[in-house]
Automatic annotation (TrEMBL):
Gene that this polypeptide is encoded by: sbcD
Protein's recorded name: Nuclease SbcCD subunit D
GO BP annotations, alphabetical order: DNA recombination; DNA replication
InterPro entries the UniProt entry points to: Calcineurin-like_PHP, DNA_Repair-Maintenance_Comp, Metallo-depent_PP-like, Mre11_N, SbcD, SbcD_C
Keyword Nuclease recorded: yes
Record bears the keyword Nuclease: yes
Assembly and interaction partners: Heterodimer of SbcC and SbcD.
GO molecular-function term, one example from the UniProt record: 3'-5' exonuclease activity
One Pfam family matching this protein: SbcD_C
Family from the record: Belongs to the SbcD family.
Protein function: SbcCD cleaves DNA hairpin structures. These structures can inhibit DNA replication and are intermediates in certain DNA recombination reactions. The complex acts as a 3'->5' double strand exonuclease that can open hairpins. It also has a 5' single-strand endonuclease activity.
Keywords assigned: DNA recombination, DNA replication, Endonuclease, Exonuclease, Hydrolase, Nuclease
Recorded superkingdom: Bacteria
Residue span(s) of domain Calcineurin-like phosphoesterase: 1-218
Amino acid sequence: MRILHTSDWHLGRSFHRVSLLDAQAAFLDHLIATVREHEVDAVVVAGDVYDRAVPPLAAVELFDAALHRLAEAGTPTVMISGNHDSARRLGVGAGLIRGAGIHLRTTPAGAGTPVLLSDAHGEVAFYGLPYLEPSLVRAEFAVRRASHQAVLGAAMDRVRADLAARPAGTRSVVLAHAFVAGGQASDSERDITVGGVSAVPASVFDGVDYVALGHLHGSQRISERVRYSGSPLAYSFSETDHRKTMWLVDLGPDGRITADERIDCPAPRKLARLHGRLDDLLADPALTRHEDSWVEATLTDPVRPPEPMARLAVRFPHAISLRFAPERADGLSSGSYARRLRDRDDRQIAEDFVAHARGEGPDARERAVLGAAFDHVRTDLTRREAAG
């Protein structure tokens, strides 16, 4: 059986306030084209379909169109909710659209009830484990400790029990949305440590043939049979070096993976992280290749230059993130700032803050403004105290 494994669409998400709806629509076009071109037997979507519990209307329309196109392609699709999704909202109408070959798994109670799909070699049982928040599903799984490992372990016990009752040779696929130990995270995944330590060992998933994971945005193998597809688009500059793909996996008649391929996803624009002084970034010929990229620039100028973003945009019109990491003498380093406040009066602290934030202290005019401001505050406080 040929399976296309994807996850973490995050429909409705933007990239540093730049809308990605067009890019997400292009990805879904690519998904449908891949299904047809590679004669995919089943699509699995391992959670975080939307970027938030109440997605914008445009994202809902995009999702609705994707479901219709998958149904028209005649390709069964199994989909779970992730930690960004509202399981209740995503699961609305699940019973009705099941007849169209779209199988939504959004409730923990259904963990041990598979979607059964067949090929020439028999049945494959697809088990959907939606994101399981330990404190919310602890009672459902009757676990003593509200931890990710406990609830996922209990859900997998149901999977293994159901699988054991099926005919010998039944192959199995599990969809799960979780942080599995050994996985490499990025800056764009929402933390799921609430309810206990987030990482679970890969051994939790023992006993099944393929585990299609969602949550981490980088495509990666935890083991040969346990994999993350990653997100189809980059959602933070920490993903600059990611290769955005989907897994195309062939599950053989004995449950072993007989072939696999990473199918590249279309990128709306390359990402670049630049680091250096502003004048150097504007003049360096080696950076020509990044002039059409989305750029995050970290400026190291000792003194913050005027209008840095406007100046960057002249050469890098898609610069969308600006950071500062000034090269400074030890006396102005951030590590020594707290120590430098000791035994300083308010005015000296204010002047020190200007030097700390800007890289150089206030000039005579600015010191006069600061002095006048502090004098005004002291006068006002004295008047208030006198008034009682």
